[in-house]
Automatic annotation (TrEMBL):
Originating organism: Arenimonas soli
A Pfam cross-reference name: Sel1
Entry protein name: Sel1 repeat family protein
Signal peptide: 1-23
Superkingdom of this protein's organism: Bacteria
Keywords from the named record: Signal
Length: 240
């Protein structure tokens, strides 16, 4: 059975890439930036997925489900994949394979390969009746959580955040330093300043760049890290 590890789901979209010359230092700096409370407040998709994963790991499954639903409303594909997994396995909620497929279908909307594979794996396990129900329950989910409905929600917040932070209607950062909190791993080190151009980079606030960054980090960090469990040959249940 396909299972996307929780650690992958958060690391894939919160880990960052960097230029070869400064890759290690810049990667560490940017990883700290995207985990700050201020950054997450401007990115409710990541904030609510993070809360969902924390609750999931702690065994607070209903809380995790609700947090993932909130993240899903902001077009978060990994959160939608986690909802698919929870419904498929009946974790904290009643098991519902057709609904699991519907969430997996939404998660695969941008054609990220491993999420497409997860969706197709589910489909081949469904009976003919379950497939029909998956289509029925999937249509209202698509209307509320599909990219056409969900992307405008996150895009509006990103635009408001950039205008509020920079004071520019067009989002120009200018010469701006941002005070960062002390490193959690080094409590003796005081806060420090970071170039605002790094904190408010276009890839975090301009929609198309943001979606491209999400896909890039998912692909780069997700390859080879999907826990699919023991491989078993299963018959196609579609004819049932």
């Amino acid at each position: 059975m396909h299972r996307i590890a929780c650690s992958l789901l958060i690391a894939s979209s919160l880990a960052l890439s960097a230029s070869p010359a400064t890759a290690q230092d810049l990667r560490a700096e940017e990883a700290r930036i995207v985990m700050t409370s201020a950054f997450l407040a401007d990115h409710p998709d990541l904030k609510w997925r993070k809360r969902g994963l924390e609750a999931y790991r702690a065994g607070r499954l209903r809380e995790a489900h609700d947090a993932f639903v909130t993240a899903a409303r902001y077009a978060d594909k990994p959160a939608q994949a986690m909802l698919a997994e929870m419904y498929w396995r009946g974790e904290g909620i009643e098991r519902d394979r057709p609904r699991a497929y519907a969430w997996a279908d939404l998660a695969a909307e941008r054609a990220w390969p491993d999420l497409l594979g997860k969706r197709e794996h589910y489909w081949h396990q469904l009976s003919r009746r379950e497939r029909q129900r998956a289509i029925e329950v999937g249509l209202p989910l698509l209307r509320e959580f599909g990219d056409d409905a969900a992307k405008p929600r996150i895009e509006s917040i990103l635009a408001q955040a950039r205008r509020r932070i920079t004071g520019s209607r067009v989002g120009h950062v200018g010469y701006l330093n941002v005070r960062m909190p002390a490193h959690a791993a080094d409590p003796m080190k005081s806060g420090y300043d970071v170039d605002g151009a790094l904190v408010y980079a276009a890839k975090y606030y301009k929609p198309e760049a943001y979606y491209a960054w999400q896909e890039k980090t998912w692909r780069e960090n997700g390859v080879g890290q999907v826990d699919i469990g023991r491989i078993e040959q299963e018959p196609d249940a579609g004819a049932e």
